[in-house]
Design goal:
443 residues, alpha/beta, Lyase, Ornithine Decarboxylase, Chain A, domain 1, TIM Barrel, 2 domains, 9-stranded mixed sheet, 8-stranded parallel barrel, 12 helices, 29% helix, 24% strand, binds pyridoxal-5'-phosphate, binds lysine, lysine biosynthesis, PLP-binding_barrel, lyase, amino-acid biosynthesis, decarboxylase
Length: 443
């Protein structure tokens, strides 16, 4: 099996993460269970910070909290010196509740509501990443109402098509996000933003997509953004103190995935920036990035209990687990691939091929097609690896299934950071009008 971070197989043949035997975690917290290897999260955060320090440039590494937003994660990001990217009032609220410094929060999104903008203005966050002309006008007006002048970056689409799934690629011209550079919209946005009294234009932002392995897309995006900055200086006499190059750095989900070390991505980006600005007597801007998946993705494991199975001789054997697309929608959405291991017999040879199905009423609810496992039995624990990003954060209550607990593990200790939803949570926001009430309803 793929052992990474603090994962190990202990003397009993059980998978261990952060020094905790996962069979014990299952007893203590139940399944399904999200387990986060805190040491690995912190290590990834430090890899970014160290690589930027080595570049000699000024920087901010903003953790993209959409990948996994819970208060404990915000606290870790804060302790590791990261900034935070949020895209909704919910993510902003989570960060503020965790005591994350507002000045290090950046607010993204292509349709921020007036209420969300006001909430962020009241919190005095560090920067708004403005996505379109409507938002420029709205933000300027709302900031003016409060007598504030706020920092903004303009999100631009530099015309780079990343080699990734169509649904998670964002830097091309035909995207719902940002001001297009090619058509001149980005240039007009700079001119407009620069003239608005309640906005302080820091620079531009570009994010070309997600789960990208090659550095060339990032290098091209960095160069295009830099060339745009030079054009803006020449034509409008405006210089950018900040350039944000987004996130998107890939991780290993399955054998054959070939992510580069974090330092390699950072080196590619910072070199492209230095090359483009260095010769043009332009003060090299501060570089911001927004990694999400590459901070938390491979630190997460989802632990399930195997229930039923179905053998269709000569066709396929299914095993079903006590979760599924409700806790991990990525296989159904993007045909994402995962690896798994029988956690209570982690050292055994994986010589059986099965399809891991979830428990939702949906034929497409398959977590792993043709998964190699040691012969699975009812009651075994199945650990699906590298589920730290876009799993808990994209979980749903489809079929009224309760969202699992989340535990952080480190040095043989586990901390519950999200409680499993209760059945009362499931009906917590339901309202049964009096005229529909039955005396016999369950209390
Ligand atoms: C604007 C923006 N920044 C950062 C991210 C984080 O991307 P990733 O998790 O791939 O690093 C995303 C998601 O793709 C995004 O849309
Ligand atoms: N949610 C996606 C990535 C999109 C990230 C947000 N721009 C995933 O699971 O891979």
């Amino acid at each position: 099996m793929y052992l990474h971070g603090t994962s190990a197989i202990n003397g009993q043949g059980h998978l261990e993460i952060g020094g905790c035997d996962v069979t014990e975690l299952a007893k203590q917290y139940g399944t399904p269970l999200y387990i986060v290897d805190e040491t690995l999260v912190r290590q990834r955060a430090r890899e970014y910070v160290d690589a930027f320090k080595a570049s000699g440039l000024k920087f901010q590494v903003a953790y993209a909290s959409k990948a996994f937003s819970v208060m404990a994660m915000c606290a870790i990001a804060e302790q590791e010196g990261l900034s935070l990217d949020v895209v909704s009032d919910g993510e902003l609220y989570t960060a503020l509740k965790a005591g994350f410094p507002a000045q290090r929060i950046h607010f993204h999104g292509n349709n921020k509501t007036p209420d969300e903008i006001n909430m962020a203005l009241d919190a005095q966050i560090g920067c708004f990443v403005v996505d379109n002309f409507d938002e420029l006008a709205l933000l300027n007006a709302l900031a003016g109402d409060k007598g504030l002048k706020v920092n903004v970056l303009l999100r631009v689409t530099p015309g780079v098509e990343a080699h990734t799934h169509e649904y998670i690629s964002t830097g091309q011209q035909d995207s719902k996000f940002g001001f297009d550079v090619e058509s001149g919209a980005a240039f007009r946005a700079v001119r407009e933003a620069n003239g608005l009294p309640n906005l302080e234009l820091l620079g531009v932002h570009s994010h070309i997509g997600s789960q990208i392995f090659e550095v060339d897309g990032f290098e091209v995006a960095a160069s295009k953004v830099a060339q745009f900055a030079l054009l803006v200086r020449d034509e409008l006499n405006v210089t950018f103190p900040v350039i944000n190059l987004g996130g998107g750095f890939g991780i290993r989900y399955v054998e054959g995935d070939t992510p580069l070390p974090v330092a390699t991505y950072v080196q590619a980006i910072t070199s492209a920036i230095k090359d483009n600005f260095g010769g043009a007597s332009y003060p090299i801007p501060e570089i911001w990035v927004e990694p999400g998946r590459s901070i938390v993705g491979d630190a997460g494991t989802t632990l399930y209990t195997i229930g039923t199975s179905k053998d269709i001789p000569g066709v396929r054997k299914y095993i079903a687990v006590d979760g599924g697309m409700t806790d991990n929608p990525r296989p159904a959405l993007y045909e994402s691939k995962y690896e798994a291991v029988i956690a209570n017999r982690a050292g055994e040879v994986a010589d059986e091929t099965v399809t891991v199905a979830g428990k939702c009423c949906e034929s497409g609810d398959k977590l792993i097609i043709d998964c190699q496992l040691a012969k699975p039995h009812t009651g075994d624990l199945l650990a699906v690896l590298c589920t730290g990003a876009y799993n808990y954060s994209m979980a749903s209550n489809y079929n009224r299934i309760r969202r699992p607990s989340v535990v952080f593990v480190k040095d043989g200790h586990s901390d519950l950071v999200v409680k499993r939803e209760s059945l009362d949570d499931i009906v917590g926001n339901d309202i049964l009008p009096a005229r529909m009430k039955k005396v016999s309803a369950v209390q």
